[in-house]
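ESCALATION

Customer reports they have been waiting on this structure for their group meeting. Please prioritize. Original submission:
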Amino acid sequence: MSRGSDAEREFLEAYEPRDYPSIAVTVDLVVLAVAQGVLHAALVRRGGHPFKGMLALPGGFVAPRESAGDAAARELAEETGLDLGGLPAHIEQLASYSDPDRDPRMRVVSVAHLVLLASDGGALPGLSAGTDAASAAWHPVHAVLESPMAFDHATILRDGLERLAGKMEYTTVAAHLLPAEFTMTQLRSVYEAVWDTQLPAGNFTRKMLPHLAATGRKTQPAVGAPAALFTAEQRHIHPPLSRRRTGPAG
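Update from on-call: job pushed to the front of the queue and completed.
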């Protein structure tokens, strides 16, 4: 064993973690999905103190031998019944939140995750509250942001919305909120739900077509004309779309 290894072993044997302030780590999840043309977030109502009875993002403490990603999947299943392993979902780390006063119990740093859940625009998966959540339900994002939330969860939810809305300008990330094959109308509905605006159909189609792959298949609706089906790879949109409000489409 080298001298460097001996020195490191001696250092670690003498090291005392309790000499430093303890900091807990949590995870919080911004889970988004579109239904009936409205962007929804999976939220829980806290069953205990602090912030008892207030809306909150699903989440909780990271266990000593657990990664933040594993904790996120576990907490989401425990608090809402959603199983990331069995759902068509895209998950990515959003940001860390470390304000010293964000949690009144102790110093807590949260690693937030953004989860995009695919749906056909109809009904969303049912939620079932567990652990310390009194209830779990889907809430319209743009409306709930006007209400108070526990901890700094309104800020985290707003940041998650902004991350998604911004990336939709220059990538095809919106496809993660849709089935593997989708119509142009379904894709435009996602953009309108996230951006909280209406987009001219013809202009949207013209800008998006070069960035999608046509399947050659069409929907077979009971009423109305068939619509072409597309798929999307994770790719950049150039030139990027504009998020400015356009008003009602004519």
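Sent to customer with the following note: Residues 246-250 have pLDDT under 50 and may be disordered.
Escalation resolved.
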